[in-house]
Write a structure and sequence with these properties.
CATH superfamily of the domain at 2-220: Aminohydrolase, N-terminal nucleophile (Ntn) domain
Helix content: 40-55%
CATH architecture of the domain at 2-220: 4-Layer Sandwich
Distance between the termini: 29 Å
Radius of gyration: 24 Å
Largest sheet: 6 strands, antiparallel
CATH class of the domain at 2-220: Alpha Beta
Number of strands: 19
Shape: globular
Structural class: alpha+beta
Strand order of the largest sheet: 2-3-1-9-8-10
């Protein structure tokens, strides 16, 4: 796991700008640094050493030095690829996965991405053809941002904070994009491939980019297909899920440094722990967060689960100073990011790094196996007769039931469900996913006309499928997964120089589950039945039957307590930066609970606060 940077700049990038970019990435790679320069192309790398610690120093080249690579991530099928490449006559000098890329590129060009199993972002300089190639994994687990320079060149980096010194070195400073803020107010994150900066983009997931100094070609090499549906029995589907998950976990256990598992009280991380224990045994280390608020503390269940598996359990007590952690998050995440679970994610990553360098987690289980309650809502709406749906849509639940205190209760779920029934599909998506601001909410508060509505963006990105459930799942994988969940985990763990691996986001698992029928994914009102039934004889009953648990903080309690002063001082100040975008009377009404009380009020306020604190740092 590393941080990479580089570009194509003429006449050439000055050394100080490159050095500053590498310093900005040191948390991603504290173990080593390397660079390559052959004007106008330059490459830089900060390395976190995981495999072949001594031999895997980057940049790496092919036999004659004409192909050069810098790489961030892990290639889990590198051993099989290496054997095939050796049979084809290639010579290897190391045993690290990075070296596979240069030789595979010689065979397949940019389409090497199709043969990789793993999480990756890389840059390859091909001096023979004089082209620079960037590539990113299928789901976008590893980040990569790029920008065209005023002189017609190209710069890139793993994080936006490392791209900025390169931009300054090229004589420009990107401006804030108001459209990104507009979308953030509905989704809680800046949706990729956009960024908060004009002219700066995330390389889309499952894409490669080729640049020859003048022309830029961007191509997608993979998509998750939900059709045609497999003709398979439920029992056979369960057996295949077990096989795929077992293979995915085993592949992610390779490491030359200490490795563990993040274990919560939920089913996803419990399954990953169980499978890892089949190979590592009683020496497997698990890490669980102990929250100060009993309502969010999963450590008792996780401890019992670890004991049930016979593996080691380390409980890390989460002691958070809300304001300090919030300010740390705003600095680290580079652009507004309103998922409050990023705060405990950063905290547990720092604690786990004291014990291990690599952790496995259960990320992706909800998006791949249908684990969120909004999937119940989608399935219920699909099965409801239209007459009944219209009747339910007319029901106006009280704001008390729709409020944040009730969100995890059946009453809170019912309130959002009925409210969503009368909305358009994109509006319903926002309501059932984030419950932040719709177009009609922003229209009365936004100071300037946006380029387009966020609902239009959702409509354009949503992959059309015959079934509503598959449409919701694919939209989450297009929008929420790469822009929220994966950004959260990558930034939180990398801030602590900790590598996180997500077996349930193996693309082969996703390809199989996507093509299963909807009644396999939400079955008799149960979420994630494929995982629950596949591992019924392995997991404790309290995990199998337990409700969906989010990795949460007592957000409303914080906003009305420890964070109340910073909320009022920041958002109600006459000099607040947010006033360049939003009308202050709207902000006052939100804070006083005189509007949006049927929305996720706490998350709306938190989003406004995060945005203001981020703007203050610019």
């Amino acid at each position: 796991m590393c941080g990479i940077t580089g570009g194509w700049v003429e006449p050439e990038m000055d050394r100080e700008s490159l050095s500053e970019a590498l310093r900005a990435l040191i948390h991603r790679g504290p173990d080593d640094q390397g660079h390559f320069s052959s004007p106008p192309v330059f490459l830089g790398i900060r390395r976190l050493s995981i495999i072949d610690i001594d031999g895997g120093k980057q940049p790496l080249t092919n036999e004659d030095g004409t192909i050069v690579v810098v790489f961030n991530g892990e290639i889990y099928n590198h051993v099989e690829l290496r054997k095939d490449l050796i049979r084809r006559g290639h010579t290897f000098r190391t045993r690290c996965d990075t070296e596979v890329l240069v030789h595979l590129y010689e065979e397949a060009g940019p389409d090497l991405c199709r043969r990789l199993v793993g999480m990756f972002a890389f840059a390859i300089w091909d001096s023979r053809q004089r082209i620079l190639v960037l590539g990113r994994d299928r789901f976008g687990k590893k980040p990569l941002y790029y920008s065209r320079t005023p002189g017609g060149g190209l710069i890139f980096a793993s994080e936006l904070k490392a791209l900025q010194p390169l931009a300054r070195g090229c004589g420009y400073d990107p401006a804030i994009d108001p459209q990104a803020i507009y979308d953030f107010l509905s989704i809680g994150v800046v949706p990729q491939p956009s960024t908060i900066w004009k002219g700066v983009s995330a390389l889309p997931a499952a894409s490669w980019l080729r640049f020859d100094g003048t022309n830029l070609e961007l191509k997608s090499y993979w998509s998750l297909d939900y059709q045609p549906k497999l003709r398979i029995g439920y029992g056979d589907a369960l057996r295949h899920v077990r096989e795929l998950v077992a293979e995915a976990v085993q592949a992610r256990l390779e490491s030359d440094v200490p490795l563990g598992v993040f274990l919560s009280g939920g089913i996803d991380s419990s399954i990953v722990t169980w499978e890892a224990a089949q190979h590592i045994g009683t020496k497997l280390q698990t890490f669980t967060i102990q929250a100060g608020d009993d309502a969010f503390d999963e450590s008792p269940i996780a401890r019992r689960t670890a004991a049930h598996f016979g593996v080691q359990s380390t409980v890390l007590r989460l002691e958070v100073t809300p304001r300090a952690e919030l300010e740390r998050l705003v600095r680290q995440y580079d652009q507004p990011f309103a998922d409050p679970s990023a705060i405990p994610s950063m905290a547990i990553a720092r604690l786990a790094r004291q014990h291990v360098t690599v952790v496995l987690n259960g990320d992706g289980g909800d998006e791949v196996f249908a684990g969120y309650r909004r999937y119940l809502a989608v399935r219920a709406a699909e099965l409801l007769p239209s007459r009944i749906a219209r009747m339910l849509a007319c029901i106006q639940p009280s704001s008390r039931l729709a409020g944040r205190h009730e969100r995890r209760t059946p009453a809170g779920f019912w309130a959002r469900f009925t409210r969503g029934l009368e909305l358009t599909p994109p509006e319903r998506y926002i309501t059932w996913t984030t419950d932040l601001l719709l177009e009609k909410d922003k229209a009365r508060a936004w100071r300037a006309p946006p380029q387009r509505s966020t609902e239009d963006l959702i409509e354009s990105m949503a992959q059309k499928n015959p079934g509503p459930l598959d449409t919701q799942l694919s939209t989450d994988i297009q929008i929420i997964l790469p822009s929220a969940l994966l950004v959260k985990m990558d930034m939180a763990t990398m801030a602590a120089s900790l590598e996180a691996r997500s077996p349930l986001l193996d693309h082969r698992i996703a390809e199989f589950t996507a093509r299963l029928p909807s009644h396999f994914k939400v079955r008799y009102g149960r979420l994630k039945p494929l995982l629950r039934d596949a591992y019924r004889n392995c997991l404790p009953e309290e995990v199998l039957r337990g409700p969906k648990r989010g990795f949460e903080i007592p957000l409303q309690k914080w906003l009305e307590g420890e964070l109340r002063e910073v909320v009022l001082d920041s958002l109600l100040s006459p000099s607040a930066k947010i006033l360049a975008y939003l009308d202050q009377s709207f902000i006052k009404k939100v804070l006083e609970k005189r509007c949006l009380t049927d929305h996720n009020w706490a998350l709306v306020v938190y989003s406004l606060l995060v945005m203001e604190l981020w703007l203050q740092q610019q």
